[in-house]
Amino acid sequence: MPDQPTVPVPAPPDTAPPDTAPPDTAHLDRRARAGRAVRDLGHGLIGHQVDDALLDELAASLESLTARLAAGGVRSRQPSTFQSNSDDWGADPDQTEFTGFDDRPVSGRSSPLGLDPVIRRVGDEIHATVTLRSAHEGAPGRSHGGVVSALFDDVFGFVLSIERTPAFTGELTIRYAGPTPLHQPLTCRVRLASREGRKLFMTGELLTADESVCVRAKATFIAIDVAATPGWGDGV
């Protein structure tokens, strides 16, 4: 079948007016449902054999929906969206689950790229339970290493909630101790190891259900002054 033209999607502008309206919970829940459906679609496409007719139907439907999405107004994430999980900052160690902003690429419930982790604070650590699926496969039967790296980068970020410190990733080191399996529960455990000025040094591991270590990771985060960060001072 000849290549079909892709649906043009305009890139968001460099700046967009701040979204100051209070969140509509029902609308956000609908976005989360749509995000989950897109994630499941990706795993279904990669993980199952289907006939050409279904593939053609799928492509046509998605191209039509993409064109309709592109006709909507441009969304621009504002710094204020990072307040969505601010109540978790410094939360009690016995709290059940952390939440991040919905569009967070790895753990956001509305993200089409998300991994659907369940993230909890356990003492001074963050534990994220996740099951990697078909679209995460790299070598046969194993997760792609880049997916694992993204998982760690995201989960390390939740340590900042414990420390009550806004910061950006400065360095991320991943050591693959063995294959990372698909379709079974894994636990990513991370914590702050030490702190030196603006630098926060973190360590973590990814473990299978039997506590075998698949991956070890280290990260350096750099604390920021929100008020002095361009475009952020008035937004958070």
TrEMBL record:
Lipid metabolism recorded as keyword: yes
Location of the Thioesterase domain: 144-214
Biased composition (Pro residues): 1-21
GO BP annotations listed: apoptotic process; fatty acid metabolic process
A GO-annotated cellular component: mitochondrial intermembrane space
EC number in record: 3.1.2.2
Region (Disordered): 1-34, 73-114
Subcellular location: Cell projection, Ruffle membrane; Cytoplasm; Mitochondrion inner membrane; Mitochondrion intermembrane space
UniProt key word S-adenosyl-L-methionine: no
Recorded catalytic activity of this chain's protein: octanoyl-CoA + H2O = octanoate + CoA + H(+); dodecanoyl-CoA + H2O = dodecanoate + CoA + H(+); decanoyl-CoA + H2O = decanoate + CoA + H(+); (9Z)-octadecenoyl-CoA + H2O = (9Z)-octadecenoate + CoA + H(+)
Comp. bias (Polar residues): 77-87
Membrane topology summary: Peripheral membrane protein
InterPro entries in the record: HotDog_dom_sf, THEM4/THEM5_acyl-CoA_thioest, Thioestr_dom
Key words, A-Z: Apoptosis, Cell membrane, Cell projection, Cytoplasm, Fatty acid metabolism, Hydrolase, Lipid metabolism, Membrane, Mitochondrion, Mitochondrion inner membrane, Transit peptide
One MF annotation (Gene Ontology) recorded for this entry: hydrolase activity
Protein family (similarity comment): Belongs to the THEM4/THEM5 thioesterase family.
Name the record gives this protein: Acyl-coenzyme A thioesterase THEM4
